[in-house]
Amino acid sequence: MQENIDPLSTKLVITEEGLDAMNKLGAVTLIQYPVYTSEGAQFFAPPDPKLFDYVVISSRPMENFKRPEVKKEFPFYVEKLENFENMLLDPENFKLIKSFTLPKPNLIPLSDVFIYENVTK
Fold it and tell me: Model pTM?
């Protein structure tokens, strides 16, 4: 990613773990997605993706808010993440330019990674 993208472009990276390779990317806005209520996860709201040239997301954080128990307990949290995801999936706003996916079933709990380019800038 570092070699293929203008170093002056704005990049948002959302990941779930401190040990994954995305934590080593330079010149990015990195958000380590909170998972537990003890970390305040229910108050997490991602920034507006339209503010960035590129958005890189791990699949596991984006799957967490879709769990039925999370939807029931934290509707505010779910609404914010649904809006974020809908913005990324809207072809008038973003284009998926690269995905790194693992075969299913995924026996090792690793995330798929998706890179979106903002088409409105």
Answer: 0.83
**9 three-state secondary structure:** coil
Tens-digit pLDDT profile for the chain (121 aa)?
Answer: 556 777 778 888 888 765 555 555 666 777 777 767 777 778 888 899 999 999 999 888 888 889 898 889 888 889 999 999 999 999 999 999 999 998 888 777 788 899 999 999 7
What's the alpha-carbon Rg for the chain, to the nearest Å? 14
Residue pair 61/41 in contact (Cβ under 8 Å)? The answer is no
Closest by Cα among 60, 61, 6 to 28: 6
